[in-house]
Protein backbone atom coordinates (compact mmCIF):
# COMPACT_ATOMS: atom_id res chain seq x y z
CA UNK A 1 0.00 0.00 0.00
CA UNK A 2 1.10 3.56 -0.67
CA UNK A 3 2.19 5.19 2.61
CA UNK A 4 -0.33 7.95 3.35
CA UNK A 5 1.16 11.39 2.80
CA UNK A 6 4.18 10.21 0.84
CA UNK A 7 3.02 11.53 -2.52
CA UNK A 8 2.24 15.00 -1.22
CA UNK A 9 5.46 15.08 0.80
CA UNK A 10 7.51 14.13 -2.26
CA UNK A 11 5.92 16.88 -4.36
CA UNK A 12 6.38 19.50 -1.64
CA UNK A 13 10.00 18.45 -1.13
CA UNK A 14 10.80 18.58 -4.85
CA UNK A 15 9.25 22.02 -5.26
CA UNK A 16 11.21 23.27 -2.27
CA UNK A 17 14.48 21.83 -3.60
CA UNK A 18 13.94 23.21 -7.09
CA UNK A 19 12.85 26.76 -6.12
CA UNK A 20 9.30 25.98 -7.16
CA UNK A 21 10.30 24.13 -10.29
CA UNK A 22 12.62 26.88 -11.54
CA UNK A 23 15.98 25.16 -10.98
CA UNK A 24 16.75 21.73 -12.45
CA UNK A 25 17.84 18.86 -10.18
CA UNK A 26 20.27 16.01 -10.79
CA UNK A 27 19.42 12.37 -10.13
CA UNK A 28 21.65 12.62 -7.06
CA UNK A 29 19.64 15.58 -5.73
CA UNK A 30 16.41 13.67 -6.26
CA UNK A 31 17.75 10.63 -4.40
CA UNK A 32 17.97 12.67 -1.18
CA UNK A 33 14.24 12.49 -0.55
CA UNK A 34 13.37 10.81 2.75
CA UNK A 35 10.02 9.77 4.19
CA UNK A 36 9.63 8.78 7.85
CA UNK A 37 13.40 8.96 8.23
CA UNK A 38 14.21 6.68 5.30
CA UNK A 39 15.32 7.38 1.78
CA UNK A 40 12.61 6.72 -0.73
CA UNK A 41 13.36 6.69 -4.49
CA UNK A 42 10.84 8.83 -6.34
CA UNK A 43 12.39 8.64 -9.79
CA UNK A 44 12.81 5.53 -11.91
CA UNK A 45 16.39 4.78 -12.86
CA UNK A 46 15.62 2.49 -15.79
CA UNK A 47 12.25 3.21 -17.26
CA UNK A 48 10.17 6.28 -17.72
CA UNK A 49 7.44 5.49 -15.23
CA UNK A 50 8.00 4.86 -11.51
CA UNK A 51 5.39 2.73 -9.78
CA UNK A 52 6.95 1.71 -6.49
CA UNK A 53 6.35 -1.86 -5.28
CA UNK A 54 3.09 -2.06 -3.38
CA UNK A 55 1.72 1.15 -4.91
CA UNK A 56 -1.49 1.00 -6.86
CA UNK A 57 -0.69 4.03 -8.98
CA UNK A 58 2.41 5.50 -10.59
CA UNK A 59 4.23 8.17 -8.60
CA UNK A 60 6.33 9.81 -11.31
CA UNK A 61 7.45 9.65 -14.91
CA UNK A 62 10.25 11.27 -16.82
CA UNK A 63 11.18 12.36 -20.30
CA UNK A 64 14.75 12.30 -21.51
CA UNK A 65 16.65 15.33 -22.67
CA UNK A 66 16.52 15.98 -26.40
CA UNK A 67 19.09 17.77 -28.49
CA UNK A 68 18.46 21.46 -27.93
CA UNK A 69 18.81 22.63 -31.51
CA UNK A 70 15.61 20.93 -32.59
CA UNK A 71 13.46 23.71 -33.88
CA UNK A 72 10.27 22.91 -32.09
CA UNK A 73 11.11 20.88 -29.05
CA UNK A 74 7.54 20.37 -27.84
CA UNK A 75 5.83 19.13 -30.96
CA UNK A 76 5.90 15.51 -29.86
CA UNK A 77 4.42 16.33 -26.50
CA UNK A 78 1.91 18.99 -27.35
CA UNK A 79 -1.10 18.49 -29.51
CA UNK A 80 -2.86 21.37 -31.22
CA UNK A 81 -5.14 21.44 -28.19
CA UNK A 82 -2.18 22.40 -25.98
CA UNK A 83 -2.37 19.22 -23.92
CA UNK A 84 0.73 17.18 -23.13
CA UNK A 85 1.08 13.61 -24.38
CA UNK A 86 3.13 10.94 -22.68
CA UNK A 87 3.83 7.68 -24.51
CA UNK A 88 3.04 4.28 -23.00
CA UNK A 89 5.93 2.16 -21.99
CA UNK A 90 6.21 -0.18 -24.99
CA UNK A 91 3.19 -1.53 -26.83
CA UNK A 92 1.40 -3.44 -24.13
CA UNK A 93 -1.39 -1.45 -22.49
CA UNK A 94 -1.26 -3.82 -19.53
CA UNK A 95 2.39 -3.38 -18.78
CA UNK A 96 2.49 -2.76 -14.97
CA UNK A 97 3.86 0.75 -15.48
CA UNK A 98 1.15 1.69 -17.96
CA UNK A 99 -1.42 0.27 -15.58
CA UNK A 100 0.11 2.34 -12.82
CA UNK A 101 -0.26 5.57 -14.77
CA UNK A 102 -3.81 4.64 -15.79
CA UNK A 103 -4.63 4.01 -12.14
CA UNK A 104 -3.33 7.48 -11.23
CA UNK A 105 -5.84 8.81 -13.76
CA UNK A 106 -8.72 6.78 -12.31
CA UNK A 107 -7.88 7.76 -8.75
CA UNK A 108 -7.19 11.37 -9.79
CA UNK A 109 -3.87 11.34 -8.01
CA UNK A 110 -1.18 13.97 -8.53
CA UNK A 111 1.91 12.72 -10.37
CA UNK A 112 5.44 14.09 -10.71
CA UNK A 113 6.91 14.78 -14.13
CA UNK A 114 10.69 14.99 -14.48
CA UNK A 115 11.57 16.82 -17.70
CA UNK A 116 15.12 16.15 -18.87
CA UNK A 117 16.98 19.39 -19.70
CA UNK A 118 20.62 18.23 -19.78
CA UNK A 119 22.89 15.21 -19.92
CA UNK A 120 26.21 14.41 -18.25
CA UNK A 121 25.08 14.84 -15.60
CA UNK A 122 21.40 14.41 -16.33
CA UNK A 123 19.28 17.25 -14.99
CA UNK A 124 15.54 17.43 -14.69
CA UNK A 125 13.04 20.22 -14.39
CA UNK A 126 10.32 19.41 -11.86
CA UNK A 127 6.76 19.82 -13.11
CA UNK A 128 4.43 18.82 -10.30
CA UNK A 129 1.71 18.14 -9.61
CA UNK A 130 0.48 17.01 -13.01
CA UNK A 131 -2.62 14.92 -13.65
CA UNK A 132 -3.31 12.18 -16.15
CA UNK A 133 -6.70 13.10 -17.56
CA UNK A 134 -7.15 10.88 -20.59
CA UNK A 135 -5.70 8.06 -22.61
CA UNK A 136 -5.42 7.69 -26.38
CA UNK A 137 -4.95 3.93 -26.91
CA UNK A 138 -4.87 4.32 -30.68
CA UNK A 139 -1.71 6.42 -30.24
CA UNK A 140 -0.46 4.43 -27.23
CA UNK A 141 -0.24 7.44 -24.97
CA UNK A 142 -1.68 9.30 -22.04
CA UNK A 143 -2.88 12.89 -21.87
CA UNK A 144 -1.44 14.96 -19.07
CA UNK A 145 -2.24 18.45 -17.77
CA UNK A 146 -0.19 20.64 -15.45
CA UNK A 147 -3.23 21.96 -13.54
CA UNK A 148 -5.38 20.74 -10.67
CA UNK A 149 -7.60 18.05 -12.13
CA UNK A 150 -10.66 19.35 -10.32
CA UNK A 151 -10.51 22.18 -12.84
CA UNK A 152 -10.35 19.84 -15.76
CA UNK A 153 -13.52 17.98 -16.52
CA UNK A 154 -13.28 16.85 -20.15
CA UNK A 155 -17.00 15.98 -20.37
CA UNK A 156 -17.98 19.57 -19.78
CA UNK A 157 -15.60 20.95 -22.31
CA UNK A 158 -17.03 19.86 -25.62
CA UNK A 159 -17.70 22.90 -27.73
CA UNK A 160 -18.58 25.23 -24.91
CA UNK A 161 -17.42 28.65 -23.84
CA UNK A 162 -15.81 26.89 -20.90
CA UNK A 163 -13.72 24.99 -23.40
CA UNK A 164 -12.13 28.13 -24.81
CA UNK A 165 -11.32 29.68 -21.45
CA UNK A 166 -10.08 26.32 -20.17
CA UNK A 167 -7.79 25.97 -23.16
CA UNK A 168 -6.42 29.46 -22.61
CA UNK A 169 -5.80 28.62 -18.97
CA UNK A 170 -4.08 25.37 -19.91
CA UNK A 171 -1.84 27.04 -22.45
CA UNK A 172 -0.85 29.70 -19.90
CA UNK A 173 -0.12 27.15 -17.18
CA UNK A 174 1.86 24.97 -19.59
CA UNK A 175 3.92 27.97 -20.58
CA UNK A 176 4.60 29.10 -17.01
CA UNK A 177 5.21 25.70 -15.46
CA UNK A 178 6.83 23.85 -18.35
CA UNK A 179 8.15 25.96 -21.20
CA UNK A 180 9.57 28.92 -19.31
CA UNK A 181 11.56 26.97 -16.68
CA UNK A 182 12.83 24.51 -19.30
CA UNK A 183 13.84 27.38 -21.59
CA UNK A 184 15.65 29.19 -18.77
CA UNK A 185 17.58 26.09 -17.71
CA UNK A 186 18.65 25.03 -21.17
CA UNK A 187 19.78 28.54 -22.11
CA UNK A 188 21.65 29.22 -18.87
CA UNK A 189 23.38 25.84 -19.03
CA UNK A 190 24.38 26.39 -22.66
CA UNK A 191 26.05 29.67 -21.65
CA UNK A 192 27.52 28.05 -18.52
CA UNK A 193 25.74 30.68 -16.42
CA UNK A 194 27.42 33.71 -17.99
CA UNK A 195 25.92 36.84 -19.53
CA UNK A 196 26.63 36.64 -23.27
CA UNK A 197 27.33 40.38 -23.39
CA UNK A 198 29.39 41.09 -20.24
CA UNK A 199 30.27 37.63 -18.90
CA UNK A 200 28.69 38.24 -15.48
CA UNK A 201 28.39 34.85 -13.77
CA UNK A 202 25.72 35.02 -11.05
CA UNK A 203 22.63 33.00 -11.92
CA UNK A 204 20.49 35.13 -9.61
CA UNK A 205 21.27 38.10 -11.85
CA UNK A 206 20.82 36.23 -15.15
CA UNK A 207 17.80 35.73 -17.40
CA UNK A 208 17.17 33.59 -20.43
CA UNK A 209 16.25 36.24 -23.00
CA UNK A 210 14.30 35.48 -26.15
CA UNK A 211 16.03 36.78 -29.28
CA UNK A 212 12.66 37.03 -31.03
CA UNK A 213 9.96 37.55 -28.36
CA UNK A 214 7.79 34.55 -27.54
CA UNK A 215 4.56 36.37 -28.44
CA UNK A 216 5.91 36.41 -32.02
CA UNK A 217 5.17 33.08 -33.68
CA UNK A 218 8.80 32.89 -34.80
CA UNK A 219 9.90 33.25 -31.17
CA UNK A 220 10.35 29.56 -30.46
CA UNK A 221 11.16 28.26 -26.97
CA UNK A 222 14.45 26.73 -28.07
CA UNK A 223 18.00 27.45 -27.00
CA UNK A 224 18.76 28.76 -30.51
CA UNK A 225 16.28 31.59 -29.84
CA UNK A 226 17.87 32.26 -26.47
CA UNK A 227 20.64 34.34 -24.95
CA UNK A 228 21.79 34.24 -21.36
CA UNK A 229 21.83 37.91 -20.36
CA UNK A 230 22.22 39.72 -17.06
CA UNK A 231 19.21 41.75 -15.92
CA UNK A 232 20.54 45.06 -17.25
CA UNK A 233 21.60 43.70 -20.63
CA UNK A 234 18.35 41.79 -20.97
CA UNK A 235 16.34 44.95 -20.43
CA UNK A 236 18.70 46.92 -22.70
CA UNK A 237 18.28 44.29 -25.43
CA UNK A 238 14.49 44.17 -25.13
CA UNK A 239 14.25 47.97 -25.18
CA UNK A 240 16.64 48.32 -28.14
CA UNK A 241 19.29 50.18 -26.15
CA UNK A 242 21.58 47.38 -27.23
CA UNK A 243 21.60 45.36 -30.42
CA UNK A 244 23.43 42.17 -31.36
CA UNK A 245 24.57 41.85 -34.94
CA UNK A 246 24.14 38.46 -36.63
CA UNK A 247 27.94 38.14 -36.57
CA UNK A 248 27.79 38.41 -32.75
CA UNK A 249 29.05 42.00 -32.35
CA UNK A 250 27.36 44.32 -29.87
CA UNK A 251 26.02 47.72 -30.90
CA UNK A 252 24.79 50.46 -28.61
CA UNK A 253 22.12 52.94 -29.73
CA UNK A 254 23.81 56.00 -31.18
CA UNK A 255 22.32 58.64 -28.92
CA UNK A 256 23.43 56.70 -25.86
CA UNK A 257 27.02 56.77 -27.06
CA UNK A 258 27.05 60.54 -26.78
CA UNK A 259 25.37 60.77 -23.41
CA UNK A 260 27.50 61.58 -20.37
CA UNK A 261 26.53 59.83 -17.16
CA UNK A 262 27.91 57.52 -14.45
CA UNK A 263 29.88 54.26 -14.59
CA UNK A 264 26.93 52.00 -15.46
CA UNK A 265 26.33 53.83 -18.72
CA UNK A 266 30.04 54.07 -19.50
CA UNK A 267 31.25 50.55 -18.60
CA UNK A 268 27.95 48.70 -18.76
CA UNK A 269 26.88 49.98 -22.19
CA UNK A 270 29.05 52.50 -24.09
CA UNK A 271 32.31 50.54 -23.84
CA UNK A 272 30.66 47.41 -25.24
CA UNK A 273 29.91 49.09 -28.57
CA UNK A 274 31.67 47.23 -31.37
CA UNK A 275 32.86 44.42 -29.09
CA UNK A 276 32.08 40.75 -29.77
CA UNK A 277 29.87 38.75 -27.42
CA UNK A 278 31.95 37.57 -24.47
CA UNK A 279 30.24 34.22 -24.04
CA UNK A 280 28.74 31.74 -26.48
CA UNK A 281 27.79 28.08 -26.00
CA UNK A 282 30.63 25.60 -26.52
CA UNK A 283 28.44 23.54 -28.81
CA UNK A 284 27.72 25.16 -32.15
CA UNK A 285 24.27 23.59 -32.29
CA UNK A 286 23.32 25.76 -29.31
CA UNK A 287 24.50 29.04 -30.84
CA UNK A 288 21.88 31.69 -31.56
CA UNK A 289 20.11 31.10 -34.84
CA UNK A 290 21.38 33.55 -37.47
CA UNK A 291 17.95 34.23 -38.96
CA UNK A 292 16.50 35.01 -35.54
CA UNK A 293 19.40 37.35 -34.78
CA UNK A 294 18.75 39.10 -38.10
CA UNK A 295 15.10 39.66 -37.18
CA UNK A 296 16.06 41.12 -33.80
CA UNK A 297 18.84 43.25 -35.26
CA UNK A 298 16.43 44.66 -37.84
CA UNK A 299 14.10 45.68 -35.00
CA UNK A 300 17.03 47.34 -33.23
CA UNK A 301 18.04 49.18 -36.41
CA UNK A 302 14.59 50.51 -37.11
CA UNK A 303 14.14 51.59 -33.48
CA UNK A 304 17.45 53.44 -33.72
CA UNK A 305 16.60 55.18 -36.96
CA UNK A 306 13.06 55.97 -35.79
CA UNK A 307 14.43 58.74 -33.63
CA UNK A 308 15.85 57.11 -30.54
CA UNK A 309 12.68 56.33 -28.63
ZN1 LIG B 1 25.56 41.51 -18.85
Description:
This protein is of the alpha+beta class. It folds into 2 domains: 6-151, no CATH class; 191-303, no CATH class. Helix content is 31%, strand content 19%. It has 9 helices and 13 strands. Strands 1, 4, 5, 6, 7, 8 and 9 form a 7-stranded mixed sheet that branches. It has a two-stranded antiparallel ribbon with strand order 2-3. The protein is elongated. 36% of the residues are buried. Residues 71-76 have low confidence and may be disordered. The structure holds zinc ion. Residues 195, 197-198, 200, 229-230, 233 line the site of zinc ion.
What key phrases describe this protein's structure?
alpha+beta; elongated; two-stranded antiparallel sheet; 9 helices; 13 strands; 2 domains; 7-stranded mixed beta sheet; 309 residues; 31% helix; binds zinc ion
Average of the residue pLDDT scores: 88
Low-confidence parts:
71-76
| Whole-angstrom Rg | 22 Å
Judged by helices, strands and strand pairing, the structural class is alpha+beta
Shape assignment? elongated
As a percent range, the share of strand residues is 15-25%
H/E element string? HEHEEEEEHEEEHHEEHEEHHH
